[in-house]
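Hello,

Our lab assistant flagged a job as stuck in the queue for most of the afternoon. It eventually completed. Since we weren't sure the result was trustworthy after the delay, we are filing this so someone can double-check. Below is the sequence as submitted and the structure that was eventually returned. Let us know if re-running is recommended.
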Amino acid sequence: MNTIWKFVIPSTRCEVEMPYDSDILSAQVQDEQVVVWARTTTQTRPTKRRFSILMTGEDFPYRDFLRSDFIGTVQLRGGAVVGHVFVEKREFA
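-- returned structure --
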């Protein structure tokens, strides 16, 4: 079945389990938690996806930038904290 699911991103560097074919749509803040929504088919096998939230002005290796796709920018604590959400690109089998 095709559906859209929400996944919580619990920390600035983490892995989140989701169906293999998940297509990430957006990142936002909900109840002071960073979450992503993904279009998915629920019958596919689960896999872990690596997420990073980089704060404005934070340094990070260029190779990490090349290996990741930008999802969106989120604001926490009334806009006092701004993070940019990335997901590591998938390797298709």
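-- support follow-up --
The delay was a queue issue, not a problem with the job. The result is valid. The longest helix spans residues 62-66. Strands lie at 2-9, 13-19, 23-30, 33-41, 46-55, 68-76, 81-88.
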